[in-house]
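Internal ticket - ligand job 258, protoporphyrin IX containing FE:
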Amino acid sequence: METIINDRLAKRSSKKAAAGNDDEDLLGVLLNLKDTDDLGFTEIKAVILVSHMDMFLAGSDTWTITVEWAMSELMKHPRVMEKAQREVRKVFNGKGCVVDEASIDRLQYLQLVLKETLRLHPPGPLAIPRESKETVMVNGYKILAKTRVFVNLWAINRDPHHWTQPEVFEPERFLNSSVDFRGTDFHYLPFGAGRRMCPGMHYGLALAYLSLANLIYHFDWKLPHQMKPEDLDMSERFGIEVKRQKNLILIPAPYHPR
Ligand code: HEM
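stdout (structure tokens):
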């Protein structure tokens, strides 16, 4: 990392990226601060390390876990797979078979599938911990000031007070419903809510839609060893992220539109 910082400093001194105007990326911005504020090399390295860890961990695992759960649910529910696949192929067959971002918003049913996947399988089951500023009562519980609170998004998304048959995968439950990802419906919070809500939501959703649409457009999928959909193991491995307990193993057959 030191080599990268030194290279950048050398470039700045050659006036290509004049100090103070170097705001192309995070490193440039931090070096500008070093020029004007009390920011040393150690702090710069720490900020870069932590923010990259944040972005890489939060940015890569989350949406891939979501795609894996979505594929699992589609395999478990052939009716839903058929409907989603029909929609994707209808939209993209007329577009030279290229599944691109431009037409993703026409995949209305796939959006319901992803909403329902994120309800049952939010990759981050717990929101970032919060600390109460003052003593408050919540649902009859007294929460003292300065208490560290963990909000269980996973449990909220399955709360039987808000969802009928919460354990059932039913994308149609979101049809004609205004509930969405923005963190304003407090019974559905796959991306959290408030100030610390996920900043990568739109990016993560775009990646998930695009990958899923490509997977189900280009391939027909089968379970191995004549396994029946009802036998597919959906156990979760609980942790900071909720992944599948066992890898999802599927057999693809390429789809060739006539
Ligand atoms: C399907 C995809 C994703 C889901 C379900 C998801 C979910 C979440 C959740 C639940 C939180 C905690 C929010 C809270 O406590 O209120 C969070 C935080 C965060 N997410 Fe995501 N995320 C996704 C994709 C991404 C991507 C693609 C990025 C970056 C490129 C990203 C970056 C972050 C960061 C940096 C935080 C911490 C925010 C903070 O500390 O204030 N996420 N995410």
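Auto-summary: DSSP finds seven helices and eight strands in the chain. The CA atoms of residues 33 and 39 lie 7 Å apart.
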